[in-house]
Structures are given as C-alpha cells and as structure tokens.
Specification:
The protein is an alpha/beta fold. The chain has one domain: TIM Barrel. It has 13 helices and 12 strands. An 8-stranded parallel barrel has the order 1-2-3-6-7-10-11-12, surrounded by 8 helices. Strands 4-5 form a two-stranded antiparallel sheet. Strand 11, helix 11 (249-252) and strand 12 form a beta-alpha-beta unit. Helix 2 packs antiparallel against helix 3 (44-62), helix 3 packs across helix 13 and helix 6 (111-121) packs parallel to helix 7. It is globular and about 60 Å long. It starts with a helix and ends in a 6-residue tail after the last helix.
C-alpha cells in the first residue's frame, strides 16, 4: 500500500516533510530564465524550459533531504501542453531519484470522467492490448464534495496499483470556514468529510495501520489538527500551510500519532523562493532550497520524533 512506501521513506530520512513544486515563472532566477528567453523569446516554450531546469535542480538538491515532492498541476497547466510535458518529465525524474510523488491535482468529478482522471494520474490508459502508464504519480489530491462517486475510481487504482490519495477535509485557506466550519447536525462539515474519508478507505490499511485514503488538514488550524488526529484513526494527513502561510512546527505536531507517524507537512514557497533571501542573483538557488528544507526538518524535530 502506497502510504507504507511513504512512511518508509519518512523513517529513512527522519523527515516528515514534502517539498511543493508550485513553480511560477517569477520564482525562476532571472539568469536562468534569460537563457531560455534568449533562445525562444518571451514565450511559453521558454517558460516551460526554464521551469523544467529549475525544478530538476531543486530535485537534485533535495532528494536526499525530503522523502517526497508535490508538484501542483495548475502551475504546469498554465503553460499549456508544454507545461504538462514538463510535469510528466518531472514526475519521472523525481521517481528516478527515489522520491515519493504526490500529484496535487484536486480532481473531483464523477463516473467515467473520474475514471479517466484516475487512469491518467494513477493508473494506465489502454491502447489496443497495451496498458500505458501516463503521469504515474504515487498519490493524488482529491475533492470529495461530490461524494463517493468522485473517489471510488481512484480507490480502485489505489488497490490495484499500490497507490494512495488525499481528500480535502479542512483546508488552510481563511475562507474555508465559509463551508467547512458550518454545523451539519451534531457535527461540523469538516468532521463529516473526515468521517466519510475514513469510511471510504475502510479495508485498505497497510502494515503501519494507515488506509489508502488520507485527508488534507491545514497547518493553520492546529486545534482542528488535534481534534481530527484523535477522531480519524488510520487516516494519513497531508498538512499544507507551513511557512509562508503561517503554520509552524508547534502547530503541525498535532497531526502526528504518538510514534511520530501518520502525517507529512508541505512547504512550497519557503523552499522554492529561498534564493530570494540570500542576497545573490539566484545562482545559489539549489543551496538555498536545501538549507530551507533542512531548517524545516530541524524545526519539526524539536516537536516530532519519527519512530
């Protein structure tokens, strides 16, 4: 089961963090972007090439520090087909470096459409008699607010191919309270969703006791993290919102069980853009990213011991 693989990688590096690859063109150091605009002009082709080189450099700098990366599909989609080609190449490159890849796609459709999404991101596309992997991520993020119809096709691929998925539960954005904190009977909506995630993933637990369907719970809500950790036994957490969004090590400690397991904390901009704080021109972006990732790891170690 895929979360067993993730937990093994976390244990090996004593580091329950994931680096988000949410790369915008403006995050690429000017010297690197210029190499591509000089060659291709101010075009999508230049942007895609620069981002591919930048992100590969980040992976080279981070693969022995972090257990996982989380490319956000939107930042590649905005470059059209060129960006999606870059994303496919980056996923393969990250996996070749031994990294666990969480494709942050937040899909949430139903029926054959959900099946097609799952085939593209986790499964295979049948061409004649051949089964062809596409993006072949280890894990995806999903929006479950259309109900189980949006989740079942992904769970089928998780079971068949040793994959996993995180479903939005209590997100880190301020306006999440507009829906997720509404009272629904004797529960709030995020608790209803958490209970559904636990029910949908029943029967898929691996050797570490975590099912194939996890929950996204934001670092900016530490009290909710504590509440849901107690409530959702066997549900692995993806915790966004650390660093640039305001979440701290003291906040996210509540996502983990007593063995320091069951969660992974994401940081994106604080790692991607670390070079902007070194006073240089970006030639040190790899070193700066690595230092930021190590700093995050060490901050978490003050509160969490991975057993």
């Amino acid at each position: 089961m895929s979360f067993d693989v993730l937990q093994e990688k976390i244990k090996a590096k004593k580091n329950p963090t994931v680096a988000g690859l949410d790369t915008r063109v403006e995050y690429v150091p000017p010297y690197l972007l210029k190499e591509y605009t000089d060659k291709y002009g101010e075009t999508l082709e230049a942007a895609a090439g620069a981002i591919l080189e930048f992100d590969r450099g980040l992976i080279d700098a981070l693969y022995d520090v972090v257990p996982a990366v989380k490319p956000q599909a939107a930042y590649f989609e905005c470059l059209g087909w060129r960006g999606m080609k870059v994303l496919e190449e980056l996923i393969a490159y990250a996996k070749s470096k031994g990294l666990y890849v969480i494709a942050d796609v937040k899909r949430g459709d139903i029926g054959t459409t959900a099946t097609a999404y799952s085939e593209g991101w986790l499964g295979v596309t049948r061409v004649g008699s051949a089964d062809c992997p596409v993006f072949d991520a280890d894990c995806v993020t999903l929006n479950g607010y259309m109900g189980s119809d949006a989740i079942k096709p992904f769970l089928a691929d998780c079971a068949a191919r040793g994959k996993s998925a995180f479903v939005l539960c209590k997100t880190s954005n301020p306006s999440s309270v507009e829906l997720q904190d509404m009272v629904a009977g004797d529960r709030v909506v995020y608790s209803v969703m958490g209970d559904l995630i636990q029910r949908w993933g029943a029967g898929t637990k691996g050797k570490y006791g975590y099912q194939a369907l996890g929950a996204v719970v934001g670092a900016t809500h530490p009290a909710v993290l504590k509440e849901l950790r107690r409530r959702l036994d066997g549900v692995f957490f993806l915790v966004p919102g650390y660093g640039a969004q305001g979440g701290t090590a003291a906040d996210v400690r509540w996502a983990f069980d007593e063995l320091g397991r069951g969660a992974i904390v994401n940081a994106s901009r604080s790692i991607l853009c670390a070079w902007k704080k070194t006073g240089g021109d970006g030639h040190d972006y790899r070193e700066a990213a690595r230092a930021a990732a190590e700093k995050m790891r060490d901050e978490l170690k003050e509160y969490i011991t991975v057993m």
